[in-house]
Amino acid sequence: MFLGSFTTFAWLVKPLVGYAIDNSLTKRAWIFISLFLDIIFVLFLGLMQMPLFILVVLLALNSSSAAFRDVAVDGIMCVEGKKYQATGRIQSIQWISILIAGLFTSLGGAYIAEKWDYKIGFLCLIPIYLLVTLPTYFYKEEQSEKKYASLFSDLKNLFGDKKILIIGLFIFLYKFSPSFGTPLFFIQRDSFGWSKMWIGTLGTISTLFGVIGSLLYYKFSQKLNIKKWLYYSVLVGGLTTLSYLYYTPFTAIAYDVVYSLVGMFIFIMVMDFMARHSVRGLEATSFALLCSINNLSGVTSNLSGAFLLPIVGLKWLIVLSALTSFLCLFLINKIE
Questions:
Q1: Nearest to residue 293, comparing CAs of 160, 164, 163?
Q2: What is the pLDDT of residues 59-104, one digit of tens each?
Q3: Residue 144 gets which letter from DSSP?
Q4: Rounded to the nearest 10 degrees, what angle do helices 249-276 and 196-220 cross at?
């Protein structure tokens, strides 16, 4: 867990990454630099024997490079999406791609792990990175006039924006809910007697329904009143959480399938909401900041759930988790 945290450090400081991208070079250039560095990293990882320390450092650099690419792509999504009023549609396409890629990655990674070793896995990434350069090359980024503002001015512009502060607090409270997900895994394994293969298969089925949820958001995103739907999603979130009080083998499958579809629809809606409210000229920075608040809320939910489970038990933790879903309601009216 420590090594994993170390290698993903750059993802915890995404607003700083976003600020570097917003204020130097172009987003397109950052994607090219990231891909070039990743090819070098995986060549080292795939061709050389190295001590554990060097291996971890290279994995951290590889992860950091990917974080720059991720934030640059999100910056493009905010700029182009707001220009054409299509942030929701672009993000639907993004997440459909990510979910499908995740399925291929799971299957391909499992096959490589079984037949060869991790070095082959890294080398197999090189043609993927080269393939990604094609859409990057054909994307024509409009050159915006650089404002050359000082760091202090940018921070004042970002954190002095009352709208961003309210949205940040809303996102944290909206996503905060003491987690009880891990106990459900042990119930599936120990009480239901499900095999790891079946649990993995159910995860794959859930992913496919997540794709359907993304497609539905693509279709309806232009017609949604997001502010109104935020109220609906809070209510749905509270009710779905309470439904876990009745957890049987049948309902477990139904919950995974239905909630994957509904959950992905709501998830992209919230991401769309954040993209629409990114700050002009600091799109990559502000969207990365809101994503970091979203991630921080997830970490806080996991820690609070772990702390409360042995104290209150699973059933009361579920009830408490449902009640905290409503903490954000008073902020919705304050959002423009």
A1: 164
A2: 888 888 988 999 999 999 998 888 888 888 999 999 999 888 888 8
A3: P
A4: 40
Q: How far apart are CA 186 and CA 123, in angstroms?
A: 36
What share of residues in the chain are helix, strand, coil (percent, to 5)?
Answer: 80, 0, 20
Alpha carbons 205 and 225: distance in angstroms, whole number: 30
Q: What letter does residue 177 receive in the DSSP assignment?
A: -
Q: Which amino acid is at 168?
A: G
Decide if pLDDT at 33 tops 90: yes
Instruction: Output the six-digit token pair for 194.
Output: 């499900």
Alpha helices in 139-248 (DSSP H): 151-159, 162-175, 181-186, 196-220, 226-243
Q: Tell me the per-residue pLDDT of 210-264, one tens digit each, with 9 for 90 and over.
A: 899 899 988 888 888 888 888 888 888 888 888 888 888 888 888 888 888 888 8
Q: What is the DSSP letter of 187?
A: I
Planar angle of CA 194, 195, 201, nearest 5 degrees: 95
**DSSP sequence for 246-276:** S--HHHHHHHHHHHHHHHHHHHHHHHHHHHH
Q: How far apart are CA 145 and CA 153, in angstroms?
A: 17
Residue 198 tokens read as 């079946």
Cβ(325)–Cβ(237) below 8 Å:
yes
Q: Cα-Cα-Cα-Cα dihedral of 98, 300, 326, 293, to 10°?
A: -60
pTM: 0.74
